[in-house]
């Protein structure tokens, strides 16, 4: 990176996000909550588009929030940035039920994490195995890779990475770490490659991609935060307001899809079938029967957008 130049994460499906916001009645003078402010890409677009709107932005990573602070400073007191996990949004949104027009989620991590954080999210450079998104997370990727049992590792890789070779990879890790601790991303990526049968190694995504993703999701407890946060968002968004969620992982998307579907049937509890005593009056209309995906032109310009899926629901 050139000195003095700030490269930002490119916001995914920006036009689609703005279009779904623009149909909300009174958006111009409402509050929009960006639950994953990152480097502020979506937030800035929203602030620019509606001059009377106020934006609350959540971001659990202090380092990246500092970038958003700088970028969004021209918008003064129209922006409130909160360094917290979006699962805690209820702590900050209390009393705002009548004014919140939308919650926006853009899950996962940012280009900054891969390219500039030096925290072990990227395996193409040699970085320490860390992967923590905030200080509340105590386990590092190093702890997991060097101390968890073979079975625990295999479970993490198969649950969060849906990795076909999870047992082989876990076994190889345990074998290699008995010779020498696995200290960095390059070592781990090489072990993953060695564990996978030769004919399956050459694919368009690097074999270590799913393993790194699985470790990150596990360490930062990302999926339960999504579940908890969506429930709160439904409680706080005003009638006619929307929840917009962009997922990059099928497990994230499944949580969003299930929540939206249950809400549309009037259920907002976690009980299944007969145990559910919810009133059955629909709570939302789902506006995306199928998730929207980025256009070819966006994928060409921003290949990291390729797995994005966007879903939207509107509160009744
Ligand atoms: C894909 S990036 C968002 C990019 C942003 N929309 C933009 O256009 O610049 C996702 C961000 O959400 C943050 N994040 C992930 N999980 C979070 C959580 N549970 N609470 C708050 N922020 C979270 C990550 O640290 C990351 O910066």
Structural notes for this entry:
The chain is α/β, with parallel strands linked by helices and 316 residues long. It is 41% helix and 11% strand. Helix 7 (150-161) crosses helix 8, helix 7 packs across helix 10 (209-219) and helix 11 (222-236) packs parallel to helix 12. It is globular, with a radius of gyration of 20 Å. The model has no long low-confidence stretch (mean pLDDT 94). S-adenosylmethionine (SAM) is lined by residues 9, 11, 36, 38-42, 58-61, 64, 85-87, 106, 108-110, 133, 222, 225.
- Reading the helices and strands in chain order gives HEHEHEHEHHHHHHHEHEHE
Q: Which architecture of the largest domain does the CATH hierarchy give at level 2? A: 3-Layer(aba) Sandwich
pLDDT averaged over residues: 94
CATH superfamily of the largest domain: Vaccinia Virus protein VP39
**Strand runs, count:** 7
The tally of helices reads 13
**Low-confidence regions:** none
Terminal Cα span: 47 Å
Main beta-sheet strand count, sense and barrel state:
7 strands, mixed
The chain-level structural class is: alpha/beta
Q: How do the strands of the widest beta sheet line up side by side?
A: 3-2-1-4-5-7-6
Number of domains: 2
Task: Name the CATH class of the largest domain.
Answer: Alpha Beta
CATH fold naming of the largest domain? Rossmann fold
């Amino acid at each position: 990176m050139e000195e003095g130049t700030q490269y930002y994460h490119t916001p995914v499906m920006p036009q689609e996000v703005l279009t779904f916001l623009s149909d909300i009645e009174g958006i111009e003078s409402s509050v929009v909550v960006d639950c994953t402010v990152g480097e502020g890409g979506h937030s800035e677009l929203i602030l620019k588009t509606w001059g009377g709107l106020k934006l609350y932005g959540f971001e659990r990573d202090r380092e990246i929030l500092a970038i958003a602070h700088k970028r969004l400073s021209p918008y003064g007191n129209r922006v409130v940035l909160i360094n917290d996990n979006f699962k805690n949004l209820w702590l900050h949104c209390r009393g705002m039920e009548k004014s919140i027009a939308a919650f926006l989620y853009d899950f996962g991590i940012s280009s900054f994490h891969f390219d500039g954080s030096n925290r072990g999210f990227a395996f193409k450079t040699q970085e320490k195995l860390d992967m923590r998104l905030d200080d509340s997370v105590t386990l590092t990727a190093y702890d997991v890779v060097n101390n968890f049992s073979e079975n625990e590792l295999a479970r993490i890789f198969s649950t969060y990475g849906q990795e076909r070779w999870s047992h082989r990879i876990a076994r190889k890790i345990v074998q290699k770490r008995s010779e020498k601790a696995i200290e960095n991303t390059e070592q781990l990526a090489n072990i993953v490659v060695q564990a996978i049968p030769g004919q399956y190694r050459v694919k368009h995504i690097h074999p270590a991609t799913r393993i790194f993703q699985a470790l990150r999701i596990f360490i930062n407890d990302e999926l339960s935060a999504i579940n908890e946060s969506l429930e709160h968002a439904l409680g706080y968004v005003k009638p006619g307001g929307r929840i917009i969620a962009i997922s990059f992982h099928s497990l994230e998307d499944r949580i969003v899809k299930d929540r939206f579907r249950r809400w549309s049937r009037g259920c907002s509890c976690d009980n299944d079938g007969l145990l559910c005593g919810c009133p059955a009056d629909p709570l939302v209309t789902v506006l995306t029967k199928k998730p929207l995906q980025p256009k070819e032109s966006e994928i060409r310009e921003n290949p990291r957008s390729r797995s994005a899926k966007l879903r939207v629901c509107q509160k009744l």
